Amino acid sequence: MIRFEQVSKVYPDGTTAVDGLSFEVAEGELVTLVGPSGCGKTTTMMMVNRLIEPTSGRILVDGEDIAGIDPVRLRRRIGYVIQQVGLFPHRTILDNTATVPSLIGWKRGRARERAAELLDLVGLDPKTYGSRYPAQLSGGQRQRVGVARALAADPPVLLMDEPFGAVDPVVRERLQNEFLSLQAAVRKTVLMVTHDIEEAVRMGDRIAVYGDGRIEQFDKPATVLGTP
Ligand code: ADP
Ligand code: ADP
């Protein structure tokens, strides 16, 4: 579903962020990218939705070289969840969740219906929370809205950059478990960046272990941990 072929990224200042990455993520697979800060995880992920362009190599999504896909069209096929979910502060939770469907031309009623379904799916009752504003939610709840919004247009691919990094450990574990149940139902192809090895192990079908611009190991959690 996602395939990297010899992908490198050198930033204009000469920093090599990733160097000759080749790997594949299967349809419906959740791969966690783990490793210390600065080793190229975020760069890897942002090349998939063309927020960053590779210097060399190519990336295929669903067999298609993404260099030939209009970035705006590409991002409709790819959901994106980040640590500081950028919700629009002056829009309600329901409207925030309906943003993407509206942008891609769904009728308002259908977009809002879909948004309510998704809020339900991430454990936020739309009747209670739909009409609130982002500042009236807890950090954990805002992350849930971030996930709902990323899923709104039903993209086959989901990119997550430290999605649960900004909440306390207890909430984080709850969000991780919730996301795993959700993923069991929706089966997205997921790339998820984390610097937390426990999270990588708990969440990943496979783990890409990064070290300085390269993937040093790419395997199932048990193998990465050395427990057969
Ligand atoms: P990670 O997500 O693993 O923390 P990043 O992909 O953010 O790593 O960064 C990889 C390397 O590229 C780091 O050395 C970082 O400083 C560098 N880098 C990231 N973004 C830029 C940029 N816009 N310009 C120059 N260097 C960058
Ligand atoms: P979580 O475990 O999801 O992080 P919290 O324990 O932080 O939740 O919040 C508990 C409850 O308090 C939630 O139902 C949330 O709606 C409410 N709440 C949190 N922050 C605010 C706020 N700024 N305004 C109104 N309600 C809030």
TrEMBL record:
The keyword Transport applies. One of its GO terms (molecular function) is ATP binding. Residues 2-228 form the ABC transporter domain. The keyword DNA repair does not apply. This is ABC transporter ATP-binding protein. Belongs to the ABC transporter superfamily. Keywords: ATP-binding, CBS domain, Nucleotide-binding, Repeat, Transport.
